[in-house]
Amino acid sequence: MNNVGRGISLQVLIAISIMLSTLLLGAALAYQGYRGIQQTLVAAAGDSAQLLGKTINERARRLIDPAQSSIRLLTYDDVAQADNLPQRLERLPLLVESLDANKMLSAVYVGYPNGEFMLVRRLRGAELKQRFAAPDMAAFLVQTITAGEGGAMLGEWRFFDRQLTLLKAELKADYHFDPRTRPWFQDAITRSETVLTRPYVFFTTGQIGLTLAQRSVSGAAVIGMDASVDDLGGEVKDLRMTAGTEMAVVDGEGSVVAYPDLKRVVVTDNDGPRLSKIGELGVASLTQLFGESAAGETPYKFRVDGAEWYGMRAPLSTFARQDVRVLIAVPANELLAGARQVLVDQVRWAAVLIALLLLIGWAVGHRIGRPLRALADQVRALAGFDFSREVGVRSRVTEVRELSHVIGRMSRTIHNFQAITLNLSRETRLDRMLGGVLERLVDASGASGGAVYLTDENDDSLRLSAQCQGNGYPPTLSLVARSHEDLAAAVAQALDSHAHYLAVALNDRSHELLGILVLQLAPEHEAGGTVQQPFRKFVEELSGAAAVAIETRQLIEAQQRLLDAIIKLLADAIDAKSPYTGGHCERVPQLAQMLLDKAVASDSGPYADFAMNDAELYEFRIAAWLHDCGKITSPEYVVDKATKLETLYNRIHEVRTRFEVLWRDAEIDYWQGLAGGGDQEALQLTLERRRAELQEEFAFVANANIGGEFMKDEDVARLQQIGARRWQRHFDDRLGLSHDESVRLAAVPVPLLPVDEPLLADRPEHIVPWGERKPPVAKDDPRNLWGFDMRLPAQAYNYGELYNLGIRRGTLNEEERFKINEHIVQTIIMLNTLPLPKHLRRVPTIAGNHHEKMDGTGYPRRLGKDDMSIAERVMAIADIFEALTAADRPYKAPKTLSESVKILGFMARDQHVDPQLFRLFLSSGVYREYGEKFLRREQIDEVDIQPWLDMVDGA
């Protein structure tokens, strides 16, 4: 078998086969090509002649058809019924327009049954103007014949410029013309269709043309036009097939209508200029071709003066009634010269191609004949750690084919090992990691299919987590066996299949069962019905790496679930801290996710290129849940402050007690007055008046405490007036105080008791200074490491009674409003102190910028639109819309969808939120989807979003 002398070299065999095949193919193609060219010579000439005839016919039609259209339109005009010259001249603009619309028209005229006549001629060129002695500016000549007194015919010429301004008018006594004697008039007056005369030489201009005439619709006149066909001569010259081709257009009487040399077409004799006859051209080939009777669609071969010609006659349907046709005579030597050259070139290229194919055949045979060298090169690449190349060669030699197959499997196995390693180290999602590893493992092991089952934390069953090349695996398995032998039998029984399986346990580092790997075996992996030990060892070793990866991914996922739970726990705690903001930290992330998903899914508009991967989406969700985590530092009584005097409790009760004291003082004054002998009636009236004043004033103070309406200047002044009332304190106000309260009162002098005090007052002890708790929010604060830019109130708190009751709108004073806004500062500071992993580094930025505005007037850092990512701008819209529609706030009623969209629309108009995101918020229907999920039924009303969309588009 290895004896070289007993066979022929594979390289030589392949090379000889390719060379012989190429020679045979080349010879056959050359012969067939030569025969084909011979057969197509005549047909090609005939097709070319027919095409030339059709081309000339079409170009002639383009000359005649516009004129026919114009003359049909004129048959409907009033010029046909005009019975005097002024009326006819009024239609001059229309006749001139007909000439301008078709440059091939030289004149348009109207003949009347009484012999009157009107002709409009375009004066084109100096020669024509000189012939008619026209003024320099003349563009048109109007020739008229009209009946004068006594029936005498009067001839007149009028010259007009381009604007149809009359330049000159003169009588022509020698101008006599009777249209009724002309053939075109006689033919047209008796017919309803357009009359087309034979081509002839125009006497006036010397051009070759024909006359079109048609009776008017009323029958009162005949409209005529002179159309030039001089350009057909140029067309004939341009369409010649070869340099020696002779072509002419002749009518049935042998008159030449078109020929490249126009001077030979027109001859002059005693009767004036006329068209030459075909014999007068001096072209023998055309003369003989005109006299031949055998001329059809194929070329007609004839001889003239010893030379061979191919002739063809093609009728022109445009001049069907005049029997006009095209004569084409082509010299045979010119026609066949191109064909012979093509044949020679084809043979030459065929020879070159055959030589090239012979060289390629020898080279291919040389390469195919040495497959072992190719395999050696491939194995050498594997030794050089290049596993990306496909290994193997095709060969009919059995040993080479088997060696190629084995090396190819080895290469694929190594490549799959690499892919498995990369998948185990790079893939972060457990399900995708298992699918990728299983697919590579099935391919590397040559198994028919496989599946991975993982233990269920809730019970002892195994759930299907990944499968490859097969779908006959049940979703769960309930197995008790753990040894290899029992496990394989239990798997085979559970799968209820006659196929053979290898089941390998996947254990973690503590030897706890994580799951099992099931491979459906191929026949070569079994010997005597049992799995071959090397293959089992290979699968077990590989499954160990998979088990470690599974354990690692499960730990990572468990940590991530724990992190998510802690974050949600924090958000729930913030919501639970205040019954008035419950659900805010839960609803905002869901609304933000809705809007962000729409932006990511956009395939057009400003967000067509916007995309986020899984890590960025997870980072956004974490930031959304933590966006208000700083509220954990906000005092609950400030967040929930429902009245102006509320701190840890509503201090209106203190004020009411003071009014009670004044009430009692009024009664005491009454009784003391009676005891002193005063007038009872006067004292009673004074008591009633003081009681009424106290009732009314307390009601005013209590109403101001609610903060439901805007406080006017006169309301604040009245508070000052009411607060000026005095009441007497008998008890020491320094008793029972906390350390902080005592510190604030330390600088206040102690008055002697009893002491008169105002009913309402802003006392020094009401001021709580910042002290060491001053937050670093000022732009120039050296402690400000986060870029905050907020105005800091002078004091931490101001509990002054008049100060708080005088709040103009709402229930929060400046210090308390800052304290609420400070939650975003604390959010940023808290999140920046966390050791966040790299893929969560932007969480503080996304979570902390939802109170910024697009125009740079927001807080805490006064960022503009360009300083904020799309995710941050999404958070801003979500936070505002949730707050507008929330039904759990004590200081406002929940707003409807339309009211909330209106407010958000004004904010988009004023560049407080992103207008484009607001447009997406409306056009995608996120606002309604959120409303149907979270709002009360009475809040969901009809919303006309079109005005807001128009506003955004027009901005």
Automatic annotation (TrEMBL):
Pfam families: HAMP, HD_5. Signal peptide: none annotated. The chain crosses the membrane at residues 12-31. The keyword Protease does not apply. Keywords: Membrane, Transmembrane, Transmembrane helix. Residues 366-419 form the HAMP domain. Residues 735-937 form the HD-GYP domain. InterPro entries: Cyclic_di-GMP/3'3'-cGAMP_PDE, GAF-like_dom_sf, HAMP_dom, HD/PDEase_dom, HD_GYP_dom, Sensor-like_sf. PANTHER family: CYCLIC DI-GMP PHOSPHODIESTERASE TM_0186-RELATED, CYCLIC DI-GMP PHOSPHODIESTERASE VC_1348-RELATED. This is HAMP domain-containing protein. It comes from Zestomonas insulae.
